[in-house]
Amino acid sequence: MASSHGTPPVFNNKVIAWIDHRLPIFSYIEKEYHTFPTPRNFNYFWNFGAIATVMLVLMIATGVVLATNYTPHVLMAFDSVERIDRDVPQGWLIRDLHMNGASFFFIAVYVHIFRGMYYGSYKAPRELLWILGVVIFLLMMATAFMGYVLPWGQMSFWGATVITNLFSAIPVVGESIVTWLWGGFAVDNPTLNRFFALHYLLPFIIVAVVALHVVALHVHGSNNPTGIDPKGPQDTVPFHPYYTMKDGFGVVVFLIVFAGFAFFAPDYMGHPDNYIPADPLVTPAHIVPEWYFLPFYAILRAIPDKLGGVLAMFGAIAVLFILPWLDTSRVRSSTFRPIYKWFMLVLVVDVVVLGFCGANPPEGFWVPLSQVATLYYFFHFLILLPVLGKIERPLPLPPSIADSVLKKKAV
Amino acid sequence: MVATGALAGVGAAAVAWPFINNLNPAADTLALSTVEVNVQPIQVGQAVTVKWRGKPVFIRHRTPEEIKEAEAVPMSALPDPESDNKRVTDSAKKVRPEWLIMIGVCTHLGCVPLGNKPGDPKGEYGGWFCPCHGSSYDTSGRIRKGPAPKNLEVPEYLFSTDSLVRIG
User: Fold this and answer.
1) Which CATH number do you get for residue B36?
2) In this structure, are strands B126-129 and B136-138 parallel, antiparallel, or unpaired?
3) What pLDDT does A217 receive?
4) Which contacts of A53-57 are long-range, i.e. CB under 8 A and separated by 24 or more positions?
5) Cβ contact, residue pair A185, B53, below 8 Å
6) Cβ–Cβ of B29/A194 closer than 8 Å?
7) A401 with A41: CB under 8 angstroms?
8) Displacement of CA B71 from its chain's centroid (Å)
9) Is B16 part of any domain?
10) Mutate to test the interface with B, among A164, A182, A281 (most CBs of B within 10 A)
11) Neighbours of A60 (CB within 10 A)
12) Does residue B23 belong to any structural domain of this protein?
């Protein structure tokens, strides 16, 4: 059954051979996940695609089970979630895995995005691969937001109110869009119903886009820490067993940390106000979204104008779509970009600062700080990236991946 | 070919319409559209919150000072210029400056502003203050400071007697 890359595999098992002759799924798996030539120099940052995939599967599995006990009605939703926590056998576990799974899915995806940005994985010929990734990110945000509404606590209700109202800033059609989202005059039962339907639907659309993301990835193969293309067999190893093992190891380590939170601190990343049933007449003193939205929430609040804030917030994600064309440098990996490397880390600090701004009330020094951080965010993408690519002198690239690996060993 | 394509386009739009219209409020949701309130027990300086169409409605019995303050504001100081007089006129065109009736939903992103309860912060302009993103409204419910673009919305209402008001 083992085969070198390029020749079609021969299956000894007659059943497998019979199926594969008619529907070549085994050939596909063999080609794309076994012999698939993969750069030999991946570091642990390259684990996070696999980790994110595992989290997506975990979210769908726990979500389907939760849906069997959840009631999407304003009078029953909160109690049905409490019942899952208290009365349903193992309900607490499934819910804690789902709740914390969302956070850890975002952790994996944020590291994955950082990896792509630091090592220039979005550059030609992987622009569409990157754009599909941004689409997945957007779909994840929509799914996570609607999922957070379902327990119908105070933060669910008021988060839903604030986020749906964002669309009212759009001129002319804004109010109609908000009414369509609500199905009424305010966030109410029709809203909860449709959010539940969409929260169940969107993950499967994410699966479809992930499939496209993987197909696009396998056209030119993975990028690698040097950012230079493999030039021959000496630069690559077969995906299995090398990276199935390495990914497997990374997944296990990640899941240990995840399980630590799910079992010992399940509410650490949540907000206590969401254990108060939703009350449409009382706004909590301080509305905050889940942690993974905080940087974008800070950008929204940094601009003292409704439409401007909404545009800046969506712009912060929209700018990622055109990232492959904003970066004018021909060198992919930051390893060989002595100036950009530091600015990339400054951007990470900037996003973390925005996160803290988003978590704190919009008063005092948090307001100017969030404004400066927002300005820097857009400066990085719109001015720094195009200009730096032209003026920066990159370090000499190694002749090949094999060279870079073997030289490092010798030192 | 063009005619076929155009007809297919019309057909597609006709099929899409029921799906989009399905998102609009249902008849039973629309039916919950009026509420009657007896304002007699509300003392001068007090305010109450009633629920209408799933949203809070503020009814404030304003003090003479609050009325004077609201009337004295020059239009040029308002981001969304509107006279106080206009905001306290019911649908029968009767002006009652002592009764300010508004939808208690911040025009920024829909939070309920504070200022209706005695201990609440009322903001820099003595009206309402939205804790979510810091918008301040004056004693006429007009936006004065912060990210909200418009004044608090005044719903349609009618005083059937001096003490009974119908909202909606």
Assistant:
1) 2.102.10.10
2) antiparallel
3) 97
4) A53/A210, A54/A251, A54/A254, A54/A255, A55/A101, A55/A104, A55/A105, A55/A108, A56/A105, A56/A203, A56/A206, A56/A207, A56/A210
5) yes
6) no
7) yes
8) 19
9) no
10) A281
11) 17
12) no
Per-residue pLDDT at A4 exceeds 50: no
Average pLDDT over residues A87-98: 97
- Residues of chain B found within 8 Å of residue A184, distances taken between Cβ atoms: 25, 29, 53-54
**Residues of A designated as active site:** 218, 222, 246-247, 290
Test mutation, A283, A313, A367, chain B, max B CBs within 10 A: A283
pLDDT-wise least confident of A85-89, A297-301, B45-49, B115-119? B115-119
**Is residue A6 over pLDDT 60?**
no
Q: Give the whole-angstrom CA distance, residue A241 versus residue A33.
A: 9
pTM: 0.89
A280 and B55 within 8 Å at the Cβ level: the answer is yes
* Average pLDDT value over all residues in chain A: 94
Q: Cβ–Cβ of B24/A179 closer than 8 Å?
A: yes
Q: What is the ipTM of this complex?
A: 0.77
What is the tens place of the pLDDT at every residue in B70-114? 999 999 889 999 999 899 999 888 899 999 999 999 988 888 999
Distance, in Å, from the CA atom of A202 to the CA atom of B166, rounded to the nearest integer, reads 43
Asked if A125 is an interface residue toward chain B (Cβ–Cβ < 8 A), one would say no
Q: Which of B23, B26, B112 sits opposite A281 (nearest CB)?
A: B112
Give the residue numbers spanning the domain of B79: 29-167
Residue A41 per-residue DSSP state: T
**Is the pLDDT at A332 greater than 90, yes or no?**
yes
Domains of chain A: 1-35 (no CATH), 45-289 (1.20.810.10)
A307 in contact with chain B, both atoms CB, cutoff 8 A = yes
Task: Determine the angle formed by the axes of helices A154-166 and A174-182, rounding to 10 degrees.
Answer: 150
Contact B132 A287 (CB under 8 A): yes
Q: Is the CA virtual torsion A102, A107, A108, A113 positive or negative?
A: positive
